[in-house]
Amino acid sequence: MEQRILVVDDDDALRVSLAKFLQHCGYELETAEEGRSALELFRRRPFDLVILDLIMPEKEGLETLIELRRFQPDAKVIAISGGGRIAAGDYLKMACQLGAVAALEKPFWQVDILRAVVAALGSSLDQADQADQAEGFIRSGERVFTP
């Protein structure tokens, strides 16, 4: 059974490209544009991992992270941020203090998000093979997002 990942980001281009990349790596993906819809999806059927942008309209990422962890204390979350009024590193540090298993500052490399996903979910032989098949994506050296 494929591991399920929810990508939450208000940036359409990032959300779509990240979902396509991780699907290519063998994961089952769903996406949400903001925290409220992410929480609704998660409550219906929890995910193995949530990749969560911290700066979004409506319900922002830190608030969403707190609610996810309240609903499921062992929820695995990778926080991502390009910053806002506060430097990205400060937001990401707060996310880790609130229970995020990893944090990546935008822009990040595809290989870095894949490493964070594999570390958060654990690696199986099938996933390693699928990650090897994604080598073309990774070797292209593309950034998933540039703010």
Give an account of the 3D structure.
With 147 residues, the chain is of the alpha/beta class. It has seven helices and five strands. The protein has a single domain, classed as Rossmann fold, CATH 3.40.50.2300. Strand 1 (4-8), helix 1 and strand 2 (28-32) form a beta-alpha-beta unit. Helix 2 packs parallel to helix 3. The longest helix has 13 residues, at 12-24. The model has no long low-confidence stretch (mean pLDDT 85).
- Write the CATH homologous superfamily: Response regulator
Unreliable parts? none
Rounded mean pLDDT score: 85
* Second-tier CATH architecture: 3-Layer(aba) Sandwich
Helix percent reads 40-55%
